Structure prediction request, 484 residues.
Amino acid sequence: MIELFIANIDATKNKPLFFPKRFCHYFPALVFLAMMQWEKLLALGRFDPKYPSKPGNDQFRSEFEKDYDRIIFSAPFRNLQDKTQVFPLPENDFVHTRLTHSLEVSSVGRSLGKSVGEYLIQKYPVLGENQISSSDIGSIVAAAALTHDIGNPPFGHAGEDAISDFFKFHPYGKVWNEHLKPEQWADLCNFEGNAQGFRMLLSNINGLKLSFATLAAFTKYPRPALVSAKDPERKSQKKYGFFSDQMEDFKYLTEKLSISSWGNGTWHRHPLAFLVEAADDICYSIIDLEDGCTLGLVSLEESVALLAEILGDRFDPKKLEGYPTNSQKLAILRAMAINQLIRECVEAFKSNEAEMLLGTFDRALTDIIPSSESLAKISRISIEKIYRSSPVLEKEAAGFQVLDGLLEVFSKALNHKFYQTDLFSGKDKSILRLLPEGFPLEGWESHVNPYPMLRALVDFISGMTDKHALSFYRRVKGIALPGV
Prediction:
């Protein structure tokens, strides 16, 4: 009955909801429901709690286009060129890096955002009155999508697991547990690239100062690592999106855009986050399959059949024969499949937009579109033949070894310096001199909470590229020497 009641609310006025007391008596959950408003969700302004900036007057670029440009020219984004997407980079065949993947996700995100933007501008005239265009909405999604992997450590998801496992299982990782608060320990034992990305986007070192809307669209998982009651049915609570020391930053962001909270340390998604998620889902499903076929892990015939299933009646095998090479055949099918999935996701967004504003819709768009079964089939094939292939598994094994080794060397030296001081050796001193300039290396005596220091250590190691991490590991372990 609650679902029926919500579904019949007239969302076109985009006003806050007020429920009679009798509804709150019979349906207590309705007390927490308040409809978000697009004019607030797309409010101008940049993230800087201490020195909030005013929107500029650049006649050539909107505030949201500036976000995109700032990201493109940032060091963390450039580093994605040497971070693996799925496969170790081969010498001959082209496969995607995190950089090319992010650019493609951003391109798909812009298409999704502009199409949805046209719908929203028509449905909510107040947006046009506030000088918000469909291109602005496309720019927000494009910028957020561009950064969606910016917090990923070396070696992809295996790198996330390696960092988490170090603190959970390694003696010189577990040793910090007794000195930290539970929520801080949860951050370290469950390293999350999305939360690391939020941290990097807000970092004064990177100086991005992105708009509120772009940051909120980036945050697919609006909760911390440790929550009192996580709802497994809500896609937005599957992972977490910010570390415990940035809770106030995230609250500030939600206040600026009037994003609703569930009241248990979790928030509703910004509706545009569903488009960022969809852009990523579309690209990695289709393009990982293309890479797998390029490397011979999935046959051309099987790849064509999987993509043809998405295209349905639009697939013409005779036209496909007109392309002379396999790579051209894959390219045209990939383009057509992505275009089809974009259209389907736009329609799914339109159908569920009112519930997104209420927070009652919380599923991946690619799970509810007509092609969802086809995408699920591609996912199953990818797991079996691509993600569990020897090159990928070897890369993951190397990632565990490298990141565990780097964390061990530095964590051990830091622990000896501040806690087991009788073990602090000349070797430890040399190791600590390798930490980057500006690393907070003073004032962490045993009575001081070391979380900020450990956060800085994880920043340092997770920010490395794959090659840098491997080279640095060899040097600190004595496997290789500079200039030798």
User: Anything to note?
Assistant: The longest helix spans residues 326-358. The two ends are 72 Å apart (CA to CA).
